[in-house]
Each structure stands twice: as C-alpha cells, then as structure tokens.
Amino acid sequence: MSAAVDLVHAAYQVRGWYDVVQEVEHERGPAPARTLIKAASAVVIANPFAGRWEPELSPLVEPSAALGTALGERARRLLGGRPVEGYGKGGIAGLAGEQEHVVACITTVFGDAFRAEVGGGSAWISSASKTAAAGTPLDIPLAYKDEVYVRSHYDAITIAAPDGPRPDELLICVAVSTGGRVHARVGGLTVADVVGQTTSAG
What we know:
The chain has 202 residues and is α+β, with helices and mostly antiparallel strands.
C-alpha cells in the first residue's frame, strides 16, 4: 500500500475500493488519432455522522487530502502512463447521511491533493454529489485541467458500487481522462488556445 492509502486507513474506516475504465475508440465517425481513456476510482468509507445532525464537519474535511492523493494515484495508474488532461470529483452519501457529508470530503483540501497527484492543473475541479441508495450510479463530470471552459473536454464517466454506499457510508470518487471527446467539433475554446495563451504570457 502507498503512504496515502495508509493515511486514508488511519483517518477513515474503509470498506472497499472501486475502479472503472472506459476506452472510446470512436462515436460512429472515423477512427480518431488516439483512443480516449477515461477512468474513475472510488472508496467507500463509514460516515461518522450517519443518522444525526452535526453542525461541524471538520473531522471529514481535515484528513481528506489523503483521500485526494490515494484516489488520484489509483485513477492515474488506470490510464497506463498516459498524461491526465481532464479531471473531476464527486460522491454519494448513503441514505442515513446527507449530501453535505460528501461535500465535506471533497473540498479544496481534497482537491488540491488530487490535483497535485495527477500532474497539476490550473482549473477548478468539476464535481457532483448526492444522497442515494447502494448501487446508485454517479456521473462524474470531466473538464480540461488547465481551463474549465475548453469545450472539447466537457464529458463524464459513470461509476457505481453495487453494494455501496450503505445507509451509514460515503462513496468518494475521482475521475480522469486522457483528452477530449473523440469527435468534438462544436467550436469554443480549445486546448491549443490555452497552450498558446500560456506560451505568449511567458
């Protein structure tokens, strides 16, 4: 296990880890220059606030950098050494919890650690969260890591844990991608535009 995973186990009660990988070869059109790979990783942890109201959620926030690092490490490896271009995050609270419990786990503390683990990024990280029963799928939004308005990289990947989150659990997840949609062709800001702006700015 990595040091980050050890820290996750020290701070949270972990029940399981989940991964999904999707390789997109084409979308009816011609074969793209490269296969798009999208991956998501999730962890199911006990929710210490399940079944009760708690105004102070810092016990979930403070150690969450370990979650961001461990999940980022796991998702990045699923890309097989390819660089990360897009990213996202999210989670599901079991029915005895609340959406805010998920949000507490994926704040800036989590996001900064996740961003660092997958190679950096200038853009804020798109996210989705909800309260739902075990087995409910979550569509994690994806966007370009250095500029959220790059339209080609607006995407998503779906992840679900068939047995989680149980009512007293939280499912916390991240997603990464190797590029934009394989046949993106509706205009807007491009990666080349962003790279050009960065280069011209020195």
